[in-house]
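TEACHING EXERCISE
Course module: macromolecular assemblies
Task: Read the component lines below, then compare them to the predicted structure of the full complex.
Student: A.B.
Group: 4
Components provided:
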Amino acid sequence: MTPSAEILLVEDNPSDAELALRALRTRNLADRVHHVSDGVEALAFLAASPRPKVVLLDLKLPKVDGLEVLQRLKSDERTRTLPVVVLTSSREERDVRESYERGANSYIVKPVDFEAFVAAVLNSASYWLHLNQSPA
Amino acid sequence: MTAVSLASDARPGALPAGRRAAILLVDDREDGLLSLEAALKELGQDLVKARSGQEALSLLFDQDFAVVLLDVLMPGMDGFETAELIRKRERSRYTPIIFVTAADATPRDIARGYAVGAVDYLFKPFAPEVLKAKVAIFLELFRKSQELQASEQRFRTLVTNIPGAVYRLAAGMPGQALFVTDPIERISGFPARDFLDRRRTLLDIAHPEDRPRILASVEEAIRQRKPYALDYRILHRGGETRWVYDKGQAVYDERGNARQLDGVLFDITDRKLAEQELKRRTHELETANKELDAFSYSVSHDLRAPLRAIDGFSQILLSEHGGSLNEDARRLLAIVRENTNKMGQLINDLLEFSRMGRASVCRSEVDLTEMVRSVLNDLAPTYAGRPVELRIDPLPSARCDPALIRLIFLNLLSNAVKYTRPRETRRIAVGGRVDGEENVYFVQDNGVGFSMDYAHKLFGVFQRLHSPKEFEGTGVGLALVQRVVHRHGGRVWADAKPDGGATFFFTLPRLKEASL
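Instructor-supplied answer key:
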């Protein structure tokens, strides 16, 4: 448990999760991340803990999938304004559209190339943690 | 029966001019017959003589006469009795009879004559001119009626020769048949007389599920004063379901009410079955295609995650533990990464290809000359070191999807750049022209070319004509080009020689705005 997490990483693939955490570690952001592996855990975490600054959300998740997590967060008064970044392997126009229609704040396709992947995770994290201003 | 013969048959005077009508003269006395004959000779018709009622009847049995001149006073069967028998027979029911009688005939006799069917009376001694004039009138009537019969027969033959069931129904339900031709038996298994005898209606043989639709169509057509035309199923007497095409229209009375429905039924079962088979196969193909696309998408998609892990962890291994690895281990890891990248590219291309199969084509008028310039501009960095001699002829504009057509030029032009690499002077030419209903475009280079023996493999997915050592690539580019061209309704082909350059052609149909 990382009660004061600023980033909630929702990722079921352990390799992708580790790569993302390692990327964040290079900027000393690793201890500001809480990682969960499915939609149910993500919703439970958000219901019980102080809200993070951003949620990095994979779409293909066991149990409750990413789109449904997004839908629930955006239709709940308490989490409606929480920034959600979809971080997925899917380039499908259908997924991009669905995500935005359900209120995603950003949509990032995970690059296969590791360096590009690291850059994508770090750029996104630093934008939402340092540049962006969200309502309290 | 052809239209030509119909037209010539339809001339007035169907009875050939040379053919004569027959007139029957009946008198037991030779002088009576002779005086009739003398009076009528000039008419130029066949004068047939009978000396008794019996003889007259037997002649009438075999032949049609324009008119019968019948003496009233004859021994044995007299004129009245003969006339009654003539009237009773089907063949002679309407043959005109003129009684020839003595001047002293009583009004009662005359009344009796008319009662048994006389059309006229002639009193002896008669004036030959009067007799001739009267008979001439009946001759004319006979000719007219013959013509009418011939004409009726012609149209009846025409109607019955139509290979569909021609019908006339009483308007209003249940649509009793007033007329229907024999092909109805072939179509439904029931003879035409079943319908004429009111044993069943045409609606009775229609498939119950289709009846409401038939009624609705006919009612709507009557309401709009238009013909109706529809396909529906009928239940054949033998039990099987057959398809018919039914086209007809209502006939209206002077008050505008529909009185009858005139139409034709055609058996279209064979065509319908072929259509259904075609539909089924098309559907199967579409489904198979969709499944294939979904499969290739999901495969490509799910392959990316492990690939990212391979690339990521070997990179981490190199950066975090590179110091403890020897030169060879680092070289091997570099090969792992290089192959990971290749596979990544392959998956990307495959995804792009799969997406292309599903993307909808959004057409607009596109300036293709401008597009070629822009694509070459994007490609400039790839040939910056070794300039290319470019020739861009004006290309006819086309109604097409700009994003998709851009992929065609991107692939063809980057191929041209790639395969001219070994050339001292690299030349690429692009152009196009209008050719009838389509535009033909080409991209030509003076590169390494290929043997036309392999031309059939050119547009297949993952088909390559060069080794990766000579030229890099995944073998998806031209497959993509072909897919885009086909989705636009065009064709694509190539012409090349080993070491003699290559020219790729593709066509786009010329579409008008309205046909989109």
